[in-house]
Amino acid sequence: MTTMKTKKLVIVGDSAFAEIAHEYFDTDTPYEVVAFAVESAYLKRERLNGLPVVSFENLELTYPPENHDVFVAIVYTQLNRLRTRLADAAKDKGYHLASYISPRAFVWRNVEIGEHCFIFENNTVQPFVKIGRNVVLWSGNHIGHHSIIRDNCFISSHVVISGFCDIGENSFLGVNSTIANNLTVGRDNWIGPGITITRSTEPASLFGPASAEPSRVSSLRYFKIKS
Fold it and tell me: Model-level pTM?
């Protein structure tokens, strides 16, 4: 059942994440999404999902901050710098930055969450976790007890962050990556899909995706199937 609408929201961005954010905010929150906004150089269409797409630079002229909030639906572009820059610019214009926390996520009662976060369904966020500002947790992650996710991070899907970990600012953790207990991931890290981190990392470390090279033995031969 759709929640009663008491507040208005502009979503910055017009990508797939913007469409998803529109769907979630409209369904689960008191926000009514009334428009999308993009920077003028990227303003290529007038409407999205039946709503206006307007210039971000002039947003306050048509959707003033006195009665509109903003969410910046940008993924991990430029190691999260683009989302951070636009969120900061919206705040400088006087906008309150909205957050979304799915009612289908498990978030323990003493978890601390900063402004402008988006937490999808099926996340498990255990006791004493601290999540900074401008963090995205896509669906299905495990955030272990006493861990810290610092500002401007993007955690994709089915990531395991074990207990007592510290994830540095601006970092990206790819699908199915794993961070073992008691580790510090340095700021500006890129950890690719399927990577397991067993030691603390230095700032600006890049861990490419685990390569799954096909075996020289075919699947038919391995399983002794005669074709």
Answer: 0.92
